[in-house]
Amino acid sequence: MHKNLFNNLLSLDYRIHMKISKQSLNQAADKGLITTQQVEDLWSYLDQQTQPTPSLNSTSILYYLGGCIAIGAMTIFMNLGWETFGGKGLSAIAFAYALISLLLSEYFQKKSLTIPAGIMAALTVAMVPLFVYGIQTTLGYFEKGTTYQGFYKLVDTRWIIIELSTVIAGLLVLMRYRIGFILMPICLALFYLSMDLTASLFTEEKSIMSFYPSVSVWFGLCILVVALFTDIYDRSNKDFAFWLYFFGVFTLWLGISVQESHFLFAKLLYLGFNVLLIAIGTCLMRKVFLVFGGLGVLIILGDLSRTIFKDSIGFPLSLTVLGLLTIGIGIWWQRNERSIQKWVARVMPPALVNLRERHLDHGQ
């Protein structure tokens, strides 16, 4: 009896993400449902199994906001005044920042503060471009007039060494800390690397600019494949796939979104692409697909209202009907969700079915 009760409690906690407190377990012991020793054993097991994961609460938002401000301050927001320190000065500053952030990562890691540790580790990786740029400047690799800001704004094959260094350093830091947020600067460096490698294949500026959207699309698709395999085969409780999904969807969506077309058929294809993102996000239980897919739907509807259906009385009415129809589909989905889930499980590959159920188990 007690063993079945243990299993039922664990099933409730992981299946429907019920929050079980130790107080409620003690109350169950007072009623004779379980023993005091079983309370301690069960609570110890749940405490070991529950790993701290990033979530959208006020604390984690402050963590990420502070981390992004710190990373941005030493990357894209650095002004020309820093160039007065010269190459050696910039490398020294980058090294000092990286060392401090690395020590903070170690401190937070020992305190089991996973999110701050990951942010500090990501800041360490974000210092690598400045460090390498300072060395290159000292060695006369860049001509006069080149600034560090150009790394984040301009496509240039001379940045390739910086990008490769950042990826290598990022992977080493990731191996040490095993925290998903470290993938953020790694993915960003890989994205820049894909652009600069493409630039090395072309000599005409016009050819380069016309090719970048396609590079963004293919880069996004490749990252999404890696994200999916990571999501399927990673058995740790740390969500390494999140940032891969984010950069994959973002670059794929961006590459397709910037390819403007005045043809109605192309606009409808773009609408279908975003609806597909929403469907994929629903199947994989990944909200990042839903966010960009929903944003794309709003963009294309706004574009249609300004162009094809400009000054049309029927268009707003049609959108109202569409909105109500969507709500109706939501109601139908809620009433038939169990049958739909069974059908999805039959048509999806087993690996994706297991992935979906694992996300449901953890309340994602």
Please describe what this structure looks like.
This protein is mostly helical and 364 residues long. The protein is built from 17 helices and no strands. Helix 10 packs parallel to helix 12 and helix 12 runs parallel beside helix 14. It is flat, with a radius of gyration of 25 Å.
Number of strands: 0
**Weakly predicted, low-confidence segments:** 1-18
Biggest β-sheet description: none
Q: Could you tell me the mean pLDDT? A: 79
Helices and strands, in order, run as HHHHHHHHHHHHHHHHH
- Indicate the percent of residues in helices: over 70%
Backbone shape: flat
Number of helical regions: 17
Distance between the termini: 31 Å
> Which structural class do you get from the secondary structure elements?
mainly alpha
Task: Kindly summarize this structure in a few lines.
The chain is an all-alpha fold and 364 residues long. It is built from 17 helices and no strands.
Q: What are the salient characteristics of this protein?
A:
flat; 364 residues; 17 helices; 75% helix; mainly alpha
List the helices and strands and how they pair.
Layout (H helix, E strand, L loop, with lengths): L1 H14 L6 H9 L5 H14 L8 H16 L12 H25 L3 H13 L1 H11 L11 H4 L6 H18 L5 H17 L5 H29 L7 H17 L6 H21 L2 H20 L7 H22 L1 H11 L2 H12 L3
